[in-house]
Amino acid sequence: MGDLEIRPAAADDIPAIVEMLADDSLGNNRESPDDLTPYLAAYERLADDPNQHQVVAVREGRVVGTLQLTIIHGLSRKGATRSIIEAVRIHADERGNGLGTRFIEWAVDESRRQNCQLVQLTSDATRTDAHRFYERLGFTASHVGFKLQL
C-alpha cells in the first residue's frame, strides 16, 4: 500500500478535499469546487475548534482521502463522550486497496485516545457498498436517521 500519512488537514488541502467531496453522484450536485470561499471559511471554523478533526490521508505528497471526526461531550450514557465520523472520502484511484479500512481504524483509535465510549457515523441510504464496508468493520445499523433541510 506504500507509505501513508494521516494528518490534520491544512488550508492548502482544501481544493483536493472538495474535489473528493464532489466526486460522486451525491456530491456533484451539492459541492462547488470552482468556488472555494465557503470551504475555506468552514475550514477556519473547524481549525479553531479543538473538538473538530478534519484530517487527510496523504501518499507521496498527494491527498488521497479525507474525513471529519467530531468529539461530542454529553450527558446521556452516564456523561459519555462520543465521536462522529463524517464526510469520509477516498480518491477514486485509491479505492479497494485497504485505505478506507486504515482510515476508519485511525478514526476509531483517535476516538479511544479522546476517551470516547461510542463511535457513530451516518451514511446516505443509497450508499449500499459503504454500508457493507462499515458493517465489515464492526459498525451496526442501529438507528434510523432524520434530517431537516434548513
Task: Give a verbal description of the structure.
By secondary structure, the protein is an alpha+beta fold. The protein contains 6 helices and 5 strands; from the N terminus they run βαααββαβαβα. It has helices at 14-22, 27-30, 37-47, 76-79, 99-113, 128-136; strands at residues 5-8, 52-59, 62-73, 81-90, 118-121. Strands 1-2-3-4-5 form a 5-stranded mixed beta sheet, with helices on both faces. The longest helix is centred in the C-terminal third of the chain and has 15 residues, at 99-113. The termini are far apart. The relative contact order is 0.15. The mean pLDDT is 92.
Describe, in short, the structure shown.
By secondary structure, the chain is an alpha+beta fold. It is built from six helices and five strands, in the order βαααββαβαβα.
